[in-house]
Amino acid sequence: MExxxxxxxxxxxxxxxxxxxxxxxxxxxxxxxVILGGSGCGKSTLLKHLIGLLKPxxxxxxxNGKNIAALNENELxxxxxxxxxxxxxxALLNSMTIADNVALPMREHTRxxxxxxxxxxxxxxxxxxLSGFEEFYPSQLSGGMKKRAGLARAIALDPELLxxxxxxxxxxxxxxxxxxxxxxxxxxxFKMTIIVVTHELPSVFTIxxxxxxxxxxxxIFSGTLDELRASVHPRIxxxxxxxxxQETYSPEDYFRIIAGE
Length: 261
Hints:
The protein is an alpha/beta fold and 261 residues long. 38% of the residues lie in helices and 25% in strands. Helix 3 runs parallel beside helix 5 (143-154) and helix 4 packs across helix 5 (143-154).
């Protein structure tokens, strides 16, 4: 498989706390890769490094052969122009209409005529099922519609890489399933390289071509869905089978917990 992203020896620290512990992996081009793991495992921190919001303590992150950790801000912005990002809360600008939100990247980063931009906006909104909502404001949309509008903005510049941060968060199962279908459509039609950070197993089994699983800042799995299902790693089995952590307390521990110590 050809790699879109190659990460080597990535270490990330917040103060004295090590969040990502010397991890290495690749993300294949033209496929949907899911970064999977429980809360606090380092998924969001990894995503912020992949899109250049955070600089690694050490290690390399190569996107199309360029180590983004070594780029200056102008060089990094050129790489970012080939990325689209759907943040967890959609991150729409509330003072702008949906059309203006989607048009913003085109107005900032291209020299297209305004009439062309308006045509492109309608095309992107139609692609995500929001045709006719151009003049609505974010406050007038449901949670699922906001996600779709955020996705329309993320693909405004036809990116090579499309990142999703917990796309199903806060959505009901039917709306989440619709968003999964939209992710599949983007991969199949536009051959985008899609990276999805999530802990939602139904989405993983629907959209993933390739899976990277984190646990406590370390990679415990990378491979296909079939390989994930076949894994005998105890942490993976616990996650896939939704088994709770088994914690044992002495009577003294319980008394301290009850007392709020």
